[in-house]
Design a protein that fits this description.
85 residues; Transcription Regulator spoIIAA; 46% helix
Length: 85
């Protein structure tokens, strides 16, 4: 399922409400493709613009590996990492 557009739309709504901390729960996300990485980059940029902290939580090992390979791990706050793939 293409969730990147849904994710960016939801984050846009929350950021217009002056959210100070945006937590994305990845407990149901098994894969991350280029569209997902693009969504992370856009949301990260938008959060920085309005002074909102972006946090990813419950990220599984497969998604973590993709984030690490492209070098986004140093930009994103990742809490409660899942060790199972």
């Amino acid at each position: 399922m293409a969730t990147a557009p849904v994710l960016t739309s939801a984050s846009d709504q929350l950021l217009t409400e002056r959210t100070r901390r945006l937590v994305l729960d990845f407990s149901g996300v098994g894969l991350c493709n280029a569209a997902g990485l693009g969504a992370f980059a856009r949301i990260y940029r938008d959060c920085r613009t309005v002074g909102c902290e972006l946090v990813l939580t419950k990220v599984n090992a497969t998604v973590l590996q993709v984030i690490h390979i492209v070098g986004m791990e140093r930009l994103l706050t990742i809490e409660d990492r899942q060790t199972d793939a």
